[in-house]
Amino acid sequence: MATSSIFMATPITLLKKTPTFSVKCMSQTPQSGEPEVSKPATTPTLPQINIPPPPPPAPKVSTKFSDVLAFSGPAPERINGRLAMIGFVSAMAVELSSGQDVFTQIGNGGVAVFVGTSVVLTLASLVPLFKGVSVQSKSSGLMTSDAELWNGRVAMLGLVALAFTEYVKGSALV
To answer: What is the recorded membrane topology of this protein (predicted)?
Structure first.
């Protein structure tokens, strides 16, 4: 019985020793005409990680012969520009070394060299396009596909201007 009286006496003594405390609340009175709004308690939020969406898939490049060699297709201007770049540099090199103008160079076996170079360069330009490789996929840094287009355009104009100048002048430019 001694244990039960100790057990019964402990809660009574605890109740007598419980300290008292008070709670203070402060509130602001709403302005006239404003409804009283209670704000929900804010909980800390985790930072959001923004993962960029994956890039869109590259558009399929058509490998049809009519699309590759279409007027606005990837092949015609590039092939003509590449031929003009090679033609302008080689015409100027031969002119500087032998003093022959463009028309003399063409008359002295230049047609066969031109046709051979044209066939090789055209096939080399068409093979990647027929495999589905886009022109822009291999361009980076200084050597971009736009730079090649502009260099080809300038070379085409330069070759025509060289031939026209030599025709009007009647002799080699240099």
So the answer is: Multi-pass membrane protein
